[in-house]
Amino acid sequence: MIRVLLADDQSLVRAGFRALLDAQPDIEVAGEAADGEEAVRTARELAPDVVLMDIRMPVLDGLAATRRITEDDRLKDVKVVMLTTFELDEYVFEAIRSGASGFLVKDTEPDELLRAVRAVVGGDALLSPGVTRRLIAEFAARSKEPAAADALAELTEREREVMALVGIGLSNEEIARRLVVSPLTAKTHVSRTMVKLGARDRAQLVVLAYESGLVRPGWLG
Fold first, then answer.
1. In terms of DSSP H, where are the helices of the chain?
2. Which residues are recorded with the post-translational modification 4-aspartylphosphate (predicted)?
């Protein structure tokens, strides 16, 4: 059973999400929060699998709440998905860097929301190819001079190659086709790379690919 925490200051929004999620046989809403402070406190109490976090909330905004959750070692397995009105909201960009596993617009289709919740639990952080590529393009446009690539020293040549492909937005299946390997092999390379770099998920792997200079602006295909 996938346990979800809903964090949104609008009770009507929470009620809508709860009705959708609780109707699924493999998902349950474990708790709700109406502001960022309550979201952090409730996440620590319940340790849910996923937090659906509104980006703009009173007391403590969703970005700050996400940082507190993702930096808490006790919550290392909790995935945060940001909810926003605009896909490329500047706060969403910062949330990904802060450890959020992805983001959704609030008017997303119900099926996409359900897929997203299941996807982040399965380790697939970037929720939609189209949104992924827009996010990467935004990251590329804002990225600074890349840092030294010392962090990549322990990666094998194949792992660097796979990380670069993740960095330009390819899925495991697309990576498998590009490298002429099985999807399982591609997934294994991605997982090992994440473990070696201490990345929570694919979203942070994309960030690291840009920050290390392994992928640079203008490389989007």
1. 11-22, 36-46, 62-70, 90-97, 110-121, 129-142, 157-167, 172-179, 183-197, 202-211
2. 54
- Grouping H, G, I as helix, E, B as strand and the rest as coil, residue 92 is helix
116 and 151 assigned to the same domain: no
Domain range for 156 is: 146-212
Q: Is the pLDDT of residue 219 over 60?
A: no
Domain assignment present for residue 104? The answer is yes
Euclidean distance between CA atoms 105 and 1, whole angstroms = 24
The Cα–Cα gap between 217 and 137 comes to 8
Please state the domain count of the chain.
Answer: 2
Q: Is the pLDDT of residue 143 over 70?
A: no
Structure tokens at 210: 């840009």
- Final residue belonging to a domain, choices 137, 170, 202: 137
Do residues 38 and 14 make contact, with C-beta atoms less than 8 angstroms apart?
no
pTM, entire model: 0.69
What is the C-alpha radius of gyration for the chain, rounded to an integer number of angstroms? 17
Nearest CA to 166 out of 88, 95, 87, 219 is that of 219
* 59 and 124 inside one domain: yes
Listed residues 118, 137, 156: the one ending a domain: 137
- DSSP code of residue 148: P
Other C-beta atoms lying within 10 Å of the C-beta of residue 52: 29
Q: Which two tokens stand for residue 4?
A: 């979800």
The pLDDT value given to residue 29: 97
Contact of 101 with 201, CB cutoff 8 Å: yes
